[in-house]
Task: structure prediction
Amino acid sequence: MTRSTKDSHRSPLPVAVVGAGPVGLVAAAHLLARGETPLILEAGEAVGASIREWGHVRLFSPWKHLTEPVSRRMLEAHGWTHPPGESLPTGWELVRDFLEPLANLPSLAPHLHLGQRVVGITRQGFDKVRTAGRQAAPFELVVRTREGGIQRHRARAVLDASGTWTTPNPVGAGGLPAEGEEEFRDHLRYGIPDIRGAERARYAGLRTLVVGSGHSAFHSVLELSRLGEDAPGSEVIWAVRGTEPGGMFGGGGRDALPARGRLGEGLRALVTEGSVRLVTGFRVARIEGSGDRLQVVAECGTRLDPVDQIIVNTGFRPDLRILRELRIDLDPWLEAPAKLAPLIDPNLHSCGSVPPHGYDTLGHPEQDVFVLGMKSYGRAPTFLVLTGFEQVRSVVRGLTGDLEGARRVELVLPETGVCSSDFLAGTWAPDGVRDGTPDGGADRGPAAVPAAIPATAPRPPTGSACCG
Result:
């Protein structure tokens, strides 16, 4: 595989950055700092469009882990002040206090194009099969504008930081939609609903099923439990595919991100005391109508009690369609770059045990194409935003001829328990938590949490063992 030489990056063409979330905007900042011209193409009508959809959620990562040196220096040169390092922002605060100021910098703003959805990327004049002369051809990005028209842009390199938020996994255990999933879609909510806020009416006084075992599911279960405190009749059933629930709750007090540790401990307490009905080993096969409610059936035939709503928190997957005409080398099951996949396999690694990686690991047979951020992890749920910032630093160094800098490790990840399945989205910190410590709010402290879930509890809502 060839790589850019010291002088080969000199080109009048920009480097295309797909997506204006944290990783995409930080990539643009690094490109500017290295004398490159970014072309930032964002499908949404504002930066951080996906984050805005879960803006009500408070992150477990403190501010000190949500920014990075190059963009900080650029912002501080224009009077920006870094938020308190140990405080935990909401998604909206992350957008307001970091992404929007970064996007509005005079050096970056002219290169940002909103409402521009990339629908395909190729080598100009070369389909995927043709080789001779390929590397000399610029990239061509086909873009659908907000008005519905088509534009074409040329670029010397492509950084795809478009994320995975818009392509959630189905509730069906086999990776395809369950029988009835499309038919009853109006009763299903993918992502992280604002359960006690804008979407309260959808869940108050009703029985809701949450499917999933990552931090998105944690958040949903906790919020539904709280809703039940002031909305009589609100119930929550929590179904997970695994049969050993103890590992889901993470590292507790050993977690270097304290809010993440408390998250798992709070869930463990609710399950143990019976406030939340947890069903393990439940793999959804079909959804049926049951009067005004739904009945969810597992592959082995076990049925849950009828529910009114279903929250699907089964993770996300990359949308690879825009890369179809490029020579991309992906792992066949994780859908991550082939060299990266063994390093992020969720069967072997948590967030903190994934080694820093960048230019060499993320490369493809198609020179100067890189998938960054959450999308680079494919279907693996082990991503932290700090990892994305290190990817950006390394890749931009490599693109601009500094291979020594690209291969230098400049990241130490916090020790971790269990990772989020959707990078920032789906994280949670208890009410009353600021600066990483409880201040007397509604947080369930570690002392109130038993060491483990008793083997006999909880039983499935039907009163019978679920299938394994």
